[in-house]
Amino acid sequence: MLxxxxxxxxxxxxxxxxxxKTENFKKAETLIRKEITLSDIFDMGEFNKLAVEIELTTAxxxxxxxxxxxxxxxxxTDSLMEYTKSDLFEHMTFNEQVTDDxxxxxxxxxxxxxxxxxxxxxxxxxxxxxxxxxxxxxxxWCK
Length: 143
Hints:
The chain is mainly alpha-helical.
């Protein structure tokens, strides 16, 4: 079941990426909504649901929504491995890296750090860094 989710997620991601590249934002949004639903059905956690949407808001240069999603992503990194606690996957044995609370926190912290670096340095987020809400975001996350 987990493999099926991952396969479907990758396929939908590829299709929505093509839609974004061809600026067919309506199709991309439809696919992203379905990806979010799929992630929800398979108990993948908030981070995974939010991660797909930020690609679209970035492509559309929607600074307010992108900033909101950036904040939510950073706030939900702890949910990255939430699926390991789902009843859907109770029959599976996950390695210690995925289930040990300290290791899960270390992974979440690493993802958060990587995301922050991306938000601060990646050219794709330049429009966000020039927006009115950037300073408040920066103040919140740069401690």
